[in-house]
Amino acid sequence: MTTFRPVTSPTLEAFARLVERYTTLIDGHAALSPERLLIESHRQLAELYAAGLALPSTDVLFGDEEEPGSQELPIETLHDPDRGLEDEFWALLNALQVQLGGQCRYRVVFDPYEAPEEEEVVGNLADDLVEVYLDLRSGLRKWARGDSGGALWEWRFGLESHWGRHVTSALGAINALASGHDLDWPAGV
């Protein structure tokens, strides 16, 4: 397994707290109404995205003698056991799809810079919430073990390569629900 150098950063610590809140939200989804889950997801996903942008660059994980990005990461970095098992993914996805019902599927443009396509692309809000949850929880497990470098890698690299796209897609869908489909906007805190 790849090990990264430790990272000390107030923004990383603050991000870990936001991740704890989001994983708690998704872990407790069954106790919430679909509306409450979406309203809380709206707020927390926006906070996570903004805080993710403030995380240190993954360049801090490599030595001065190494060019950032010059290290070839082993395959287990891409298929991390901290992310969870496929069965867990499907169980949580199915539960959230049932909970969200008709609010689950939405139209999406996957790449706004590609030429327009004739076929509609459908997004899945439950999938977005689960993908973000599993990616962030993977980093949180590393964080809990004291592997701050591994947590930063999961969170920052994932923002740029995977969970960030799910957050922005989910926020677009939830924003549409709040703007014109009878979902309340999050109240100020």
> Taking strands numbered 1, 2, ... along the chain, how are they ordered across the largest sheet?
1-2
What fold name goes in the CATH topology slot?
A: Four Helix Bundle (Hemerythrin (Met), subunit A)
Could you list the spans in which at least 5 consecutive residues all have pLDDT below 50? 66-78
The percent range for strand residues is under 5%
Write the element-wise H/E pattern from the N-terminal end onward.
HHHHEEHHH
Structural class: mainly alpha
Q: Please tell me the CATH architecture by its name.
A: Up-down Bundle
CATH 4th-level superfamily? Protein of unknown function DUF5063
Helix tally?
A: 7
Shape: globular
Largest sheet: 2 strands, antiparallel
Please state the CA-atom Rg, rounded to the nearest Å.
17 Å
Tell me, what is the CATH class? Mainly Alpha
Structure description:
The chain is mainly alpha-helical. It is globular and about 50 Å long. The model is unreliable at 66-78 (pLDDT under 50). The chain is 58% helix and 4% strand. The chain has a single domain (10-180), classed as Four Helix Bundle (Hemerythrin (Met), subunit A). It has a two-stranded antiparallel sheet.
Present the secondary structure layout:
Blueprint: H1 10-27, H2 34-53, H3 75-78, H4 86-100, E1 105-108, E2 121-124, H5 125-144, H6 148-161, H7 163-180
Antiparallel strand pairs: 1-2
